[in-house]
From TrEMBL:
Source organism: Dunaliella salina
Region (Disordered): 163-182
UniProt name for this protein: C2H2-type domain-containing protein
Amino acid sequence: MDQGVLLVCHVDGDELSSFSNPSFTVHHCTSLPTSAVSASACLLARSNRNDMFQKTRDARMQAPTTFVIFYHQDATEDALLREEAFECGANMVTCYVPHVQEALNRVAAQQLQGNITCPWCGLQGLTPESFYLHQPLYHIYHANIDGYCPIKACRASTSNLARHLHHTHPPPGQKVEERTGH
């Protein structure tokens, strides 16, 4: 599998200045370049919240299929910061490097050798299994959509595509969690 591209947009000299991940070709920058469109993931870290919110909006606008991580020291303590970051287009909000690494490993593990296009972001080449893993990783905070299941063997009409995907198309051997409300 080819390595993805990871943009690490940070303040010079911060804790992410030497950040790396073996699954990605890492490019460090202090501002978001227009080449963000080709990035598999984008890690944004700034001390100024408003700057980060704007960078998150810019990253999402430039590259709708990119996994955007909003990295801020207050991420776990400030619910309003998290909510605004997700509204700006972040896929993940954290202040822990190990969690960043885990998410990037999941992004890198996506197999883009199929014929499914994600109806939320337009990422192409998903297999049924990679779509099952992609949807909650990238879109857990996005509004649900209705329509037809993009898995060609199914094509069912549904009013809740995320739930349909979770209940109908788990990877082989994975047990579906059934929620009963009790």
